[in-house]
TrEMBL record:
Transit peptide keyword on record: yes
Protein name: Transcription termination factor 1, mitochondrial
Annotated family: Belongs to the mTERF family.
Keyword set includes Transcription: yes
SMART domains: Mterf
Places the protein is found: Mitochondrion
Role, per record: Transcription termination factor. Binds to a 28 bp region within the tRNA(Leu(uur)) gene at a position immediately adjacent to and downstream of the 16S rRNA gene; this region comprises a tridecamer sequence critical for directing accurate termination. Binds DNA along the major grove and promotes DNA bending and partial unwinding. Promotes base flipping. Transcription termination activity appears to be polarized with highest specificity for transcripts initiated on the light strand.
Keywords assigned: DNA-binding, Mitochondrion, Phosphoprotein, Repeat, Transcription, Transcription regulation, Transcription termination, Transit peptide
Source organism of this protein record: Zoarces viviparus (Viviparous eelpout)
GO cellular component: mitochondrial matrix
A Pfam family assignment: mTERF
Gene3D superfamilies according to UniProt: Transcription termination factor 3, mitochondrial
GO terms, biological process: termination of mitochondrial transcription
Length: 387
DNA sequence: GTAACCGGGATCTGCCATTTGT
DNA sequence: ACAAATGGCAGATCCCGGTTAC
C-alpha cells in the first residue's frame, strides 16, 4: 500500500515526459509543461518543488476548448483541476475514443467531472479492466460514463474497487447481480470497501435482531431487491426501518417479512419523504372510512404505495374512485396503483364505454400490460354478452 | 384462457459538506 | 492552504410479461 503513493508520484513525472513525446503534434500540451517552470523561477521563494500557481493553466484551457469541453462548467465544478500544471486530457481522450466514445461524449464527461483528466493511462487501463470484469462490452461502460462520469472517476483507488467486487461476490451476488448493480448504481463500486461493509453489517445485525434465521443471506436479498441500498447511509436506512415499524406497529416477524419481501424497495427513500407519504396516505384512508388494519394491510402487501408522491397518489385514487372503483377493491388489488394516472384514466374510459361492471367483474383488468389489456378488450367487444 | 403472483427493465445523478493528504 | 477523496443528500414510477395454478 505504501508503494501506491510512490508509484503515483512516478507516474505523474513519467507522464509529463511521455506526453510530449507521444503527442508530437500538440504544441498546446508542451507549452503547458513549460509554463510552470517559467513561473517557478520568477518568485524563487522557498525550496523548489511547487510553483504556487493561483492562476489557471492557459494551455490546458486552450486544449479543453479545442476538445469542446464546457470550460465554464468545469471551472464551476472543480476549479483546482484547471490550475494544475500536468494533466492528461489528451491521453484520456484517446483512451475513451479507443473505447468507442464520441467526441461529444468525451467533452461532456470532462465538463462534468474535470478530475478525470488527472488520471494516468495506466490507471485508466486498470480501472477499465476491472469494470470489464462485470460488463461484457466497452460500449456499456461508455454508456455509464456518459450518464455518470463521477461514478467512474471520483475514486483513484483501483485496489479498493477490486476489493469491492470481491466483497460483493462473497455476499453471494452472482455475475448477473453484479452487472445489474454496477449498471444501476455505479457509485456503489466507488464507495470505500469499509462503507459498503458497514451497510452489509448493519443489515445482518438488523436481520439477527429481528430473529431472522440466516442473517448472512439477508443483505444479498435486500441488495438484489433494492440496488440503491449501498449508496444510502446506514442512518437513512435505519431511520426508515424505525419509521415503518413505529407507524405500523409491526412485530419483529412482520418487520422481517416486510424487509425480505417487497419492503426492501422503499428503504432508500428520504426519511421525510417516507414519513410525509405515510401521513398523507393515512389521512386519506381514514377520511375514506378505512381502519388502521386496512392501512397496515395495504402497506405490508404493497409498500410501493409509499413510494408514490402524495399528489400523484391522490390523483390516482381520485380517478379510480370517480370511475366507480371502491376503496375495498383497491385494497384487494393495490397493484393498480402501479400504473400512471393517464393509463388508469384511459382504461377506465374505455371500460366505461363498454359498460364494464367493476362490481361484477372486479378490477383485475386494470392490472395488466397494455398488450393483455387490449387483447381482453378485443375479446369483450367480439362477444359483448360474456361480460 | 386467465387470474394471480412475481420479478425485472428503464434509470438514479449532480451537487454540497466533510475529511484526508501533502 | 489547497486539492483530492469520500460521504451523504434530495428528487419521487411505470410498465411488461414469464410462470404457475385453476
Amino acid at each position: 500500500m505504501a508503494t501506491v503513493a510512490g508509484v503515483r508520484a512516478l507516474l505523474s513525472f513519467h507522464r509529463s515526459v511521455t506526453l510530449q513525446r507521444s503527442f508530437g503534434h500538440i504544441p498546446a500540451q508542451s507549452t503547458s509543461t513549460f509554463l510552470p517552470r517559467g513561473l517557478c523561477s520568477a518568485p524563487a521563494k522557498s525550496s523548489e518543488p511547487k510553483p504556487p500557481v493561483n492562476t489557471e493553466n492557459v494551455s490546458l484551457l486552450e486544449n479543453l476548448n479545442l476538445m469542446g469541453v464546457d470550460v465554464k462548467m468545469a471551472r464551476q465544478r472543480q476549479p483546482g483541476v484547471l490550475r494544475k500544471a500536468f494533466t492528461n486530457e489528451q491521453g484520456l481522450a484517446r483512451f475513451l475514443q479507443d473505447k468507442g466514445a464520441s467526441r461529444r461524449v468525451i467533452a461532456s464527461i470532462i465538463s462534468r467531472y474535470p478530475r478525470a483528466i488527472t488520471r494516468s493511462i495506466e490507471h485508466l487501463e486498470q480501472r477499465w479492466a476491472l469494470w470489464r470484469d462485470v460488463f461484457k462490452t466497452d460500449g456499456e461502460i461508455v454508456g455509464i460514463l456518459d450518464r455518470s462520469p463521477e461514478s467512474f472517476f471520483r475514486s483513484s483507488d483501483n485496489g479498493n474497487l477490486e476489493k469491492n467486487i470481491a466483497f460483493l461476490t462473497s455476499l453471494g451476488l452472482n455475475t448477473k447481480d453484479l452487472h445489474r448493480l454496477l449498471s444501476t448504481a455505479p457509485r456503489t463500486f466507488s464507495n470505500s470497501l469499509e462503507l459498503n461493509r458497514q451497510m452489509v453489517e448493519f443489515l445482518e445485525d438488523t436481520c439477527a435482531e429481528l430473529g431472522g434465521t440466516n442473517p448472512e443471506q439477508f443483505p444479498k436479498s435486500i441488495i438484489s431487491r433494492n440496488l440503491y441500498i449501498l449508496i444510502r447511509s446506514t442512518k437513512r436506512v435505519k431511520t426508515n426501518i424505525d419509521i415503518l415499524r413505529a407507524s405500523l406497529k409491526l412485530s419483529d416477524s412482520e418487520m422481517l417479512a416486510l424487509l425480505q419481501g417487497p419492503g426492501a424497495e422503499i428503504l432508500d427513500l428520504s426519511n421525510e419523504y417516507l414519513k410525509n407519504n405515510f401521513n398523507r396516505l393515512q389521512e386519506r384512508m381514514v377520511s375514506l372510512g378505512c381502519r388502521k388494519a386496512d392501512i397496515k394491510k395495504l402497506i405490508l402487501s404493497y409498500p410501493m404505495v409509499l413510494y408514490i408522491g402524495t399528489d400523484t397518489l391522490s390523483s390516482k385514487l381520485d380517478c379510480l374512485l370517480r370511475g366507480g372503483v371502491t376503496m375495498k377493491q383497491i385494497l384487494e388489488k393495490p397493484k393498480v396503483l402501479d400504473y400512471s394516472t393517464e393509463n388508469i384514466t384511459g382504461r377506465l374510459g374505455e371500460l366505461q364505454r363498454m359498460g364494464y361492471d367493476f362490481q361484477k367483474n372486479g378490477i383485475n383488468i386494470l392490472d395488466s400490460s397494455r398488450k393483455r389489456f387490449d387483447a381482453k378488450i378485443e375479446r369483450l367487444s367480439a362477444s359483448p354478452e360474456t361480460k
